[in-house]
Design goal:
The protein has a three-stranded antiparallel beta sheet. It is built from four helices and three strands, in the order H-H-H-H-E-E-E. The N and C termini lie far apart (about 40 Å). Helix content is about 60%, strand content about 10%. It has one domain. By secondary structure, it is mostly helical.
Length: about 150
């Protein structure tokens, strides 16, 4: 009986650790996507969106998984950077809801807000680098929430 309890404890630790690593990978790829938007690099946005889809699909079911995957596919299909940025706001909201509900995080995350676009994004730094305007209005925005 003790052996069974030990085995079950180890298995649950592996499953929990695996889910946390999956979420961390998702958060890291989100930050890479945000950085591509800051640089206004359409090729990098598309490539990172593909990587993001792979990571989301590899970590199992999330409540937000379908919305995130479909929105990432729309980002890839969109030709216009402004349309891509509009869709990115959906990714940001959905990802933030996962971060807010995560009990264990390896990093501090800043939920930042652009008053001009009325849209949020997530950063690992308090310094504002606005992905919705790129170099045009790089420092426009503020931190609205912090999760660590």
């Amino acid at each position: 009986m003790k052996r069974m309890i030990v085995i079950l404890s180890l298995l649950s630790a592996v499953v929990i650790g695996s889910a946390q690593n999956g979420n961390q990978n998702m958060f890291d790829i989100y930050i890479s996507l945000k950085d591509a938007f800051v640089k206004s690099d359409i090729n990098q946005i598309n490539a990172t969106s593909l990587d993001f889809i792979e990571i989301i699909e590899s970590i199992g079911k999330h409540n937000n998984q379908e919305v995130i995957v479909e929105t990432l596919k729309s980002i890839i299909k969109a030709k216009d950077i402004d349309k891509k940025r509009e869709l990115f706001s959906i990714i940001s909201s959905e990802t933030w809801s996962i971060i807010k509900n995560s009990e264990i995080l390896n990093d501090t995350f800043y939920y930042q807000y652009c008053p001009m676009k009325k849209a949020h994004w997530i950063s690992k730094e308090a310094t504002i680098k606005n992905p919705y305007y790129g170099s045009k209005m790089l420092s426009c925005g503020s931190v609205s929430e912090i999760k660590n």
